[in-house]
Amino acid sequence: MNKRRPGGILTVAVLLVALALGPQAASAQTLQRARPESVGLSSERLKRLSETFNGYVKESRLAGGVVLVARKGKVAYVEAFGLRDREANSPMREDSIFRIASQTKALVSVGVLMLQEEGRLLISDPVGKYLPEFKETTVAVPKQGGGYEVVKAKRAVTIHDLLTHTSGVGYGGGLARDRWEAAKITGWYFADRDEPVGATVARMAALPFDAQPGEKFVYGYSTDILGALVEKVSGQPLDEFLRARIFEPLGMKDTQFYLPDSKAERLAVVYSSKESGGLERAPDPGGMVGQGAYVKGPRKSFSGGAGLTSTAQDYARFLSMMLNGGELDGKRILSRKSVELMTVDHLNGVPYNPGEGFGLGFDVVKDVGAVGRPGSVGEFGWGGAYHSTYWVDPKEQLVVVYFTQLIPARDVDDHGKLRALVYQAIVD
Predict the structure, then answer these.
(1) Tell me: the pLDDT tens digits for 132-158?
(2) Contact in structure between 66 and 13 (CB atoms under 8 Å)
(3) DSSP of 21-79, one letter per residue?
(4) What is the pTM of this model?
(5) Is the CB of residue 53 less than 8 Å from the CB of residue 414?
(6) In the chain, domain spans
(7) Of 158, 98, 68, 118, nearest to 384 (Cα)?
């Protein structure tokens, strides 16, 4: 699910949205369209974005996608290119729906901060206060000569550990992989599970984790556990909580875990990069490397770590709310201080990527030179297993969302090119 892992469905959705910070931000309107020059972008330079991504389609490295660029609260560029379904010759549309995988994590993390703002939890609380199975957990540690032993965790896992991926919980592929496999809990894909996410998470608690709480960044089921916690604290299923508290207030009308039949034809098809070059349609349903059970699945498991589907416009509205200090179109989701808390580094010396840290649900940039790519200090973002990515650049009043449905992704440098082509178009 990490944005740096190859994978994704063959569809691209790039989306840049920006909302002004400061006093005027509170009255920001909907994401209206505007000429690029009116928000400090060059129309001529943005053509390079079109040419490059259409080139990926012609070269059969991508099937198609949606690119939306906005700045200072205005959409300055939007283009649907390529095909949503190559076999049916169905064109990509601006409202095509994508599996957003780990881009689900940011939404659930915001939900946790909302509950803190309501006085219903503290992120410093132990998880076991709300999910008793987590009061005492264990860790797998290597033994001399091979194998592993299971030891008690040195301390309780906290909500903060889950938000920062320092809980020690992986995706079931660590030292104790045999036990996770026996429990049938491995990989990030939940859509075909025939049990509620709370039941899956309860079973996780009895399995050995990959690291001691707070000692290591371990990417895994932390946000799925947060989803179960949100259900317990709010008293609502995760899908209902997110819909009522985030999606509906923000006008995210096409964001959901499972698609109704009326939207099924808008779901972009998953493709895979072939080792020999070109693309092939992923199996149907095929689990995590396939079309998935988002339309015809059991509809029981609401994965807070990887389960949502959405559109470029919807996700842009969510990120615009974050850039706007927690509010969009007069609807406040979070306080400005909670947004600030979520978007600074919380790792406190835990090893991570050069020049980067991790906040409460978001990767954050601390040193542009050390990161070695275009961007700004204070930028935050993440991505998903279907090769999608997004980032928010408060300094440039910019949001970028890039949805792609390509898993695995081979021989495609679209993420790097996207950054270069977005930032080279800024001319103010």
Answers:
(1) 999 999 999 999 999 999 999 999 999
(2) yes
(3) -SGGGGG--S-EE--GGGGTB-HHHHHHHHHHHHHHHHTTS--EEEEEEEETTEEEEEE
(4) 0.92
(5) yes
(6) 110-238
(7) 98
Give CA 275 to chain center in angstroms.
27
Closest CA to 302 of 386, 223, 184, 203: 223
Reference 325, options 26, 6, 1, 118; nearest CA is: 26
Calpha distance 170→342 (Å, rounded): 22
Q: Which CATH number fits domain 110-238: 3.40.50.1110, 3.40.720.10, 3.30.1330.40, 3.40.710.10?
A: 3.40.710.10
| C-alpha to C-alpha distances, 400 to 102, 151, 298, nearest whole angstrom | 16, 43, 33
Distance separating alpha carbons of residues 356 and 86, to the nearest angstrom: 38
Other residues' Cβ atoms within 10 Å of the Cβ of residue 88: 10
Report yes or no: 425 and 34 within 8 Å, Cβ to Cβ: no
Annotated active-site positions, please?
A: 102
pLDDT digits (tens, 9 = 90+) for 43-75: 999 999 999 999 999 999 999 988 888 899 888
Secondary structure class of 415 (helix, strand, coil):
helix
